[in-house]
């Protein structure tokens, strides 16, 4: 999106949860509007319905959205409901959603109770219901930067993250789902190709067709009011209001992740083959102009991954890690360097389950192509029944773990018994996440060492500039 397209703070639609039935609580009395379809602006009834605070649920029945107050049926009409608080709530919760799933399919997968400000929209998506939170962008960011980080993180880190989270969201373009030509069912925007020998996939961030962004790691973590309680979070938003990263009049698609493992990665290694000047591989260490190693060479990649070179994110400083990582993120102790072992039968079962492809008994994992940070872009899986080259990085991580590997920067060692029979595979890896853009743990250490947010952003996005849009 061009920087001149944003003149004032926008309102956004956040898809929080999709389920066959959604249970929620209104903490304030509300006005309900019922719409005939997911796109229609016309109300079914011009008279607005007043609802008391209390426990509600919604599900699809007979092709319509049904609303329940406790066990009492209130409505069975329309495809979209809009709930608006009768009085201003400020930063007090208007509604809460029960059993919200976070970290979907990753190793921190769990459910939470989450509270929200703004409007609640319930929308049919075939036989499911989507709970959507509509609110001003800056209110959204108040939760995002405390959900991605700890709300107790250092101020300069929170400022940096406020800017990149705002930049990333605006770069995607807002309101596409509200256009008349937009599709009316949610789909994943999956890109890639298949041939006899290759299966290549990547997942674009503009995948959502019924809202602007989702609330989980696919887009940005947005976990409601309970995450945004500290003065430094509010100050980080106040002092960076409307500021974005930009490059050549475009708002930067500012990606981020947990830990680079020593070097960050090129954008095109993980997504489309369209390089971005501000998303290049950099060495995560001072001085910031240190030349990044190129670890596309297999021998150099192995030497790098099996070592522990100095980097901002190479830390066990628990005080800083407790500031930057949420409680469930702290369950991941080994993120700079990690190790996973599988016996052959276990790995064969995982690959079959996660890929839907019967490779037979896995015989070898062969690196085909690496990115500049040693992350695998393509990996050949050799089985007793078939062989296939798999990519890009997220698809590799998915195929080789029930909850995704921490990253695709790993080397493989085969394990054999005394007779030379293959018994298993040992994967030694580096980093946590795709590695493109800002390394959250590295940025936290930079903040701890006295770097200002502008210096942190210049380190991770070297050709981007700061601009104030509103």
Describe this structure in words.
The chain is an alpha+beta fold. The protein has two domains: 3-233, no CATH class; 262-310 and 337-430, no CATH class. The protein contains nine helices and 26 strands. The strands form six sheets. It has a seven-stranded mixed sheet with strand order 4-3-8-11-12-1-15. Strand 16 (243-247) and strand 17 (250-251) form a beta hairpin. Helix 1 packs across helix 2, helix 2 crosses helix 9 and helix 5 (318-324) crosses helix 8. The mean pLDDT is 90.
Distance between the termini: 15 Å
The helix content, as a percent range, equals: 10-25%
Number of helices: 9
Strand segment count = 26
Proportion of residues in extended strands: 25-35%
Summarize model confidence as the mean pLDDT: 90
For the record, the count of structural domains works out to 2
Largest sheet: 7 strands, mixed
Summarize the structure.
With 470 residues, this protein is of the alpha+beta class. Helix content is 19%, strand content 33%.
Task: Set down the secondary structure blueprint.
Elements: E1 11-19, E2 21-26, E3 30-35, E4 49-51, E5 54-61, E6 64-69, E7 72-76, E8 80-85, E9 95-102, E10 110-116, E11 119-125, E12 128-136, H1 137-148, H2 155-172, E13 190-194, E14 198-203, E15 213-214, H3 231-239, E16 243-247, E17 250-251, E18 256-257, H4 298-305, H5 318-324, E19 337-343, H6 344-355, E20 362-370, E21 376-383, E22 387-391, H7 393-399, E23 410-416, E24 422-430, E25 438-439, H8 440-448, H9 453-460, E26 465-468
Parallel strand pairs: 1-15, 14-22, 18-25
Antiparallel strand pairs: 1-12, 2-5, 2-9, 3-4, 3-8, 5-6, 6-7, 8-11, 9-10, 11-12, 13-14, 16-17, 16-26, 19-24, 20-21, 21-22, 23-24
Helix pairs in contact: 1-2, 2-3, 2-9, 5-8
